Amino acid sequence: MSEVVKLESHDIVGIVTVDSPPVNALSAAVRGGILECVKAAVADPKIKAIVLTCAGRTFIAGADITEFGKPPKPPALNDVLSTIENSPKPVIAAIHGTALGGGLEVALACHYRVATKEAKLGLPEVKLGLLPGAGGTQRLPRAVGPELAVKMIVGGDPIGAAEAHKAGLIEEIVEGPAAGGEAFARKLVAEGRPLRKLRDDDSKLAAAKADRSIFTNAVAALTKKARGLEAPFAAADAVGYAIDLPFDEGLRKERQDFLRLLTSDQSKAQRHAFFAEREAAKIAGVPEGTKSRPVAQVAIIGAGTMGGGIAMSFANAGVPVTLVETGEEQLKRGLGIMQKNWEATAARGGIPADAPAKRMALITGVVGLENVKDADLVIEAVFETMAVKKEVFGKLDQFAKLGAVLATNTSYLNIDEIAKQTSRPQDVLGMHFFSPANVMKLCEIVRAEKTAPDALVTAVSIARKIAKVPVVVGVCDGFVGNRMLAQRGKQAEKLLFEGALPQQVDAVVTKFGMPMGPFAMGDLAGLDIGWRSRKDRGIKSEIADALCEAGRFGQKTGKGYYKYEAGSRAPLPDPEVEKLIDETLARLGRKKRAVSDEEILERMMYPMINEGAKILAEGIAARPSDIDVVWLYGYGWPIYRGGPMYWADTVGLKHIADRLAVYAKETNDPSLEPAPLLKKLADEGRSFASLAAESKAA
What is the C-alpha separation between 606 and 603, in angstroms, rounded? Predict the structure, then answer.
């Protein structure tokens, strides 16, 4: 018998238990063990019913994705499932924890399913650029109807046991999986209930067969946000096969589509993103076994846009927060905005109706920095100037308790300088949240020169607790994301001086898959911020300055690089801007030329890749994949392109280095010269991924 799956006979009930930590993934050994044990239970005349369950913290949580891209090992999952489905004795899946992907497909092949009340069931393959490949798209619509099946397969989000029970996906909610499954099996045998094979039961498809709009409306709602992605549409087609085709034909077409997606560039990129996020959780240079400091109380300084958004993130995760402001009025305004945001989400059905009140109750608004005295973690989110930050940290030294982690939410400033204001630089680090902080998932955790390992581990674990994706980075101007973004901004500005228009540049960037182009983004943030900063530093930017001098500050004034109709955020090209650009170029004696979309794309993306290479060479990011995670979760990089460093490898580093050298010469811009690391990798015919492989081997 298998080492990871065992069969026990409890007189008339055979209990098949999968025990393959940590998540009982469907490796070849698990598949083989299930097949062997089910066959043995079928062959045993004393056994009248079979319960399939799992040891540890979860039911089968999915396929073993480390097997993807490798030659398949027998038995194939579909062979295991047809053995279960064709068993002459009832097979009951007893689920706890999560039954996801292949795990739920195994459960769907069983004749009955029971689950504990906290169990979650889902088919999230779409998030890896795939669709369920072992009958999930054919059996689930027959179990719950096409509408919920579309939601689960095309949307990829799991459902809880209560919803699964209501929809008929599970028969009963039980206390413990093995005992509950066994009791249910005995009841089945006593009642002599016939086997229910989902493959033969089309009753829940009847309504959609008669009125296809039931299915198409569900698909339209779920694919609205799937711009540029292949898998959600392929998954929707596959659910359609269940409505239109006999089961075996639908199964065959589902398999074809699964194999096509498996080898697609998009799925490879999405799987890279999946692994990159997990890699980012590993902190380089921290002694093994370093424990997090306990965090029972959190204080946030500043109730403005960032501070309020950060406070909401903690309250969303059920963590109480003390929100500190300098005056009652600012505090009242900040709390009011948070209340309004939650109420708007509740009105849209995004959170339960009672959630705003519950979450507001977790936030205690106070005036005065002395109120941080009991906090284990203090996050400063005040105005983005060094003088203000230094002043706050100087005072924190006086009020914060010893051992508290002191974090700054700065997006650019030197944290080593900020840490020097305290007598405890070992407790100081950056927690750079992204706006809006209650929505965006990234948190750049900035390790300063003297940050203690346990302070770093604390920041990473608390970020995960509030559902953020933490990436540890080093101190430099702009850290990883904003430092790379600055290179794109510089080129976007230069392109206007050469003849491109804001709408042409933005169209190229959004066509690539980014949510916004640089000029629409500038309008959203407010052009006056950069203008004030330039004036402080004595820097000129002729076109941007001219816009600001004309009172065009972006969306807030209804005019920036674009014009905005009253109440609308949609950017509309404005002939006045074109005229203003032409006048500026004429005044500077610059000639316009036609700039191709290809050049725009290369000059938007390649300088960022170049900066990424410098970031890696300086050790500001530990891995190329960490840079990818920053861009995927902080800047809306399209997941189907895997992140900038991954994408650079698909384009080819030699091509990128060559083009950068050409642009450096053509535009007389030495900052575009290929970085030494990029040049070295290009000359050696290597990729950024080879660096990660090297460091793992070391």
Answer: 6
**Contact 201/142 with Cβ under 8 angstroms?**
yes
Residue 432 backbone zone (phi > 0: left; psi -120 to 50: alpha; other: beta) = beta
C-beta separation of 484 from 596 below 8 A: no
Number of alpha helices (DSSP H) and beta strands (DSSP E) in the chain: 30, 17
Distance CA 489, CA 624 (A): 22
At residue 203, the pLDDT reads: 95
> For the segment 194-250, what is each residue's pLDDT rounded down to a tens digit?
999 999 999 999 999 999 998 999 999 888 888 899 999 999 999 999 999 999 999
In angstroms, the Cα distances linking 437 to 307, 308, 313 are 8, 8, 7
Tokens of 271: 């799987």
* Peptide bond preceding 644 in cis form (omega within 30 of 0): no
d(C-alpha 525, C-alpha 221), whole Å: 30
pTM over 0.70: yes
- Classified as helix, coil or strand, 370 is helix
Are 59 and 99 within 8 A, CB to CB?
yes
The pLDDT value recorded for residue 72 is: 86
**Widest distance between CA atoms in the chain:** 95
**CA separation for the pair 540, 632 (Å, rounded):** 32
d(CA 130, CA 230): 9
Rounded to whole angstroms, the Cα distance separating 698 from 693 reads: 9
Q: Are 337 and 308 in contact (CB under 8 A)?
A: yes
Closest CA to 371 of 430, 325, 313, 428: 325
Burial class of 678 by CB neighbour count within 10 A (0 to 12, 13 to 18, 19+): buried
pLDDT of 1? 54
Q: Show the low-confidence residues of the chain (pLDDT under 70).
A: 1-2, 695-698
How many Å apart are CA 500 and CA 368, to the nearest integer?
50
Helix (H, G, I), strand (E, B), or coil: what is residue 296? coil
Show which residues are catalytic: 105, 125
Peptide bond into 22 cis (omega under 30): yes
C-alpha 195/C-alpha 90 separation (Å) is: 6
CA distance 682 to 672: 15
Contact 527, 552 (CB under 8 A): yes
Instruction: Report pLDDT digits (tens) over 202-212.
Output: 999 999 999 99
For residues 494 and 498, give the distance between their C-alpha atoms in angstroms, rounded to a whole number.
7
> Quick one: which of 337, 332, 328 has its CA closest to 308?
337
DSSP 491-516: HHHHHHHHT--HHHHHHHHHHHT-SS
Helix runs in 246-290, H state only? 247-262, 265-280
- What is the spatial distance between Cα 662 and Cα 302, in angstroms, rounded to a whole number? 47
**563 residue type, one letter:** K
